[in-house]
Amino acid sequence: MSQPLPQEALDQLFINARTHNRFTGEVGDETLHRLYELVRLGPTTANTTPARFVFLKSAASKQRLAPALDEGNRAKTIEAPVTVIVAHDMAFYEKLPYLFPHVDAKGWFDGKPEADLETIALRNGSLQGAYLILAARALGLDTGPMSGFDNAKVDAEFFAGTRIRSNFLVNLGHGDFSQVFPRSPRLPFDEAAQIL
């Protein structure tokens, strides 16, 4: 862990990686299992790991998602080999006796106001969603993360009767670089960061 990754790895994860709008190829179930095995290792507060992932591969599952998608996201999402609903479980603390067994961490969260739980679940579930994007790139997949959908419709269709809430979507597959927009600018260090 003390050695920096080679430039080739940095290129794959960051420098040459892009947000894709069109995909080709297929993504096997074994790859999705391997992807999750990497994602689950990323750090979260007290190992809360609130993210929940729904991998939509079948035409039937994509049709269930379609009514919730904004018009600009519909075709590319339906056509993508896999679309991941990245969600978070508001009752994440119920798993803490297993996930954080050396202390009564469940008691830290049980009974807290819903807004406090949402902050913790959203923050850590978003981290896990970012891990998913990087893990997918590490496995040779391209990604197309997006909002542009009706969260309430997704929650009603896929998470009814649960405390799971959708956050964002990620299309997965092998990206068509001919359909990628030019890279948008990023803020320079001095505008976005400081060293104190």
UniProtKB/TrEMBL annotation:
> Where do the Nitroreductase domain residues begin and end?
27-157
Q: Provide a Gene Ontology MF annotation, just one.
A: oxidoreductase activity
EC primary class: oxidoreductase
Entries under Pfam families matching the protein: Nitroreductase (PF00881)
- For the keyword Transmembrane, the answer is no
Domain of life, per lineage:
Bacteria
- Could you list this entry's UniProt keywords, alphabetically sorted: Flavoprotein, FMN, NAD, NADP, Oxidoreductase
Q: Which cofactor does it need?
A: FMN
Entries under CDD domains matching the protein: RutE-like (cd02148)
Give the EC number(s) under which this enzyme is classified: 1.-.-.-
What is stated as this protein's family in its record? Belongs to the nitroreductase family. HadB/RutE subfamily.
Identify this protein by name. Putative NADH dehydrogenase/NAD(P)H nitroreductase FW784_09130
